[in-house]
Design brief:
Length: 125
């Protein structure tokens, strides 16, 4: 089984990791040292993604497809995730985003929660 991620999500992962680490380390040293530790950790997250999964590229056709789903689901980032899933012919999109879970089927993409995916994987062995 291949694990994929839309390439456009990398900045979000980096940013969220950076902010979380910075918040955890606040007051533990100089602002510059805390920022450097947060940056290093954020890059480690991104590099871990690259090691265990494959990025799904995007081009203008993904933006076109995402825009066609605007009336079904107005969130451009979610629609780009669905377009990446279509491009990669993914079996599932795994997400905790309740809106994405409820709208994915309208775009013809199977979306499941992490808990449901765990159950699927256990059944598959």
């Amino acid at each position: 089984m291949d694990l994929l991620y839309p390439v456009h999500t990398v900045p979000d992962v980096f940013y969220l990791a950076f902010i979380d680490v910075k918040r955890l380390l606040r007051g533990q040293g100089s602002d510059e040292l805390v920022a450097q530790a947060a940056r290093t950790t954020a890059w480690e997250y991104v590099n871990s993604m690259r090691e265990i999964a494959t990025a799904v590229a995007a081009d203008n056709s993904d933006v076109w497809l995402a825009s066609k789903w605007e009336s079904l689901h107005g969130d451009i980032e979610d629609n780009l995730v669905l377009a990446a899933a279509k491009r990669a012919q993914a079996d599932y999109v795994v997400t905790s985003d309740r809106q994405l879970l409820s709208h994915a089927a309208l775009a013809g993409v199977a979306a499941v929660s992490p808990e449901d995916m765990r159950a699927v994987l256990q059944k598959l062995g």
